[in-house]
Design a protein that fits this description.
The protein contains eight helices and seven strands. By secondary structure, it is of the alpha+beta class. The chain folds into two domains: about 5-40 and about 125-230, Calcium-transporting ATPase, cytoplasmic transduction domain A (Distorted Sandwich); about 50-120. Strands 1, 2, 3, 4, 5, 6 and 7 form a seven-stranded antiparallel sheet that branches. A hairpin with a 2-residue loop joins strand 1 (about 125-130) and strand 2 (about 130-135). Helix 4 runs antiparallel to helix 5 and helix 5 runs antiparallel to helix 8. The radius of gyration is 26 Å and the shape is elongated.
Length: about 260
């Protein structure tokens, strides 16, 4: 899939050509081939149990150094009679525990957010395959599929709208916009000055009214909601500012020891 393309600015004809499909959809054979190539239309995330997640916080070079430093302080206190160093040991232990707890909480929040995103995805969807309307698992969608959406449906993947009738979507989960957003085709007068997004329906959004057909151009983590999930995954692995300050403090502490 050509993920770097600006799909908003391509015409429907261009998208159909680039995805080697048609308004009549894909054949079952071609869909199976693309499913093997692109994978399932789902957000993949391996959730770890709380104990494992907490223990994994110690798989950190900084914390390993701190733990060694704490043992060194204990050795100097217990066997060398260095009474003054015991306070340094407790400070280091406190920093290690605080760092692990903060990382544990941060990663837990990221996991909860990803779970919430996964709950926004739909189980089934209507497509045109082999020239017929079919209901299939949404996870089996592939780029080039033609999807039918109507009032009450969730959009199962990122679509370029090919046809529509009074189509309005709730995009609040992506944009925060509380009002329904009108959608239509590229030749609709409402598409002017909208950077092509008038013609796009994004996975996880909700069809408030109307109906339409759209061609799938992005699935799984290449969708807008999938990109958000990827950012959340990385946020759970990013060192927050407070831990960076703790790290700087600990470096000074180790040097002083």
């Amino acid at each position: 899939m050509e993920t770097k393309l600006d799909w908003c600015k391509l015409t429907s004809k261009d998208i159909i050509e680039k995805l080697s499909t048609s308004t009549g959809g894909l054949s079952s054979k071609e869909a199976a081939s693309r499913l093997e190539k692109y994978g399932h239309n789902e957000i993949k995330f391996k959730k770890r149990g709380p104990i494992v997640r907490f223990l994994m916080q110690f798989n950190n070079p900084l914390l390993m150094v701190l733990i060694v430093a704490a043992f060194a302080c204990f050795f100097l206190w217990a066997f060398m009679g260095e009474e003054d160093i015991i306070m340094d040991m407790w400070v280091i232990i406190g920093v290690v525990i605080a760092t692990a707890v903060i990382g544990f909480i941060q990663e837990g929040k990221a996991e909860a957010s990803i779970d919430a995103l996964k709950d926004m995805l739909v189980d089934k969807c209507k497509v045109i395959r082999d020239g017929e309307n079919k209901v299939i698992p949404a996870r089996d969608l592939v780029p080039g599929d033609v999807v039918i959406i109507e009032s009450g449906d969730k959009v199962p993947a990122d679509l370029r709208i090919l046809s529509s009738k009074s189509l309005h979507l709730d995009e609040s989960m992506l944009t925060g916009e509380s009002m329904p957003v009108q959608k239509g085709t590229e030749d609709d007068p409402n598409n002017k000055n909208n950077e092509g997004k008038y013609c796009m329906a994004y996975g996880g959004t909700f069809v408030i009214s109307g109906r339409g057909q759209g061609i799938v151009y992005a699935t799984a983590e290449e969708t807008e909601i999938g990109k958000i999930a990827k950012l959340m995954k990385s946020s759970g692995q990013t060192t927050p500012p407070i831990l960076k300050k703790i790290s700087a403090f600990v470096k000074l502490l180790i040097i002083s020891i």
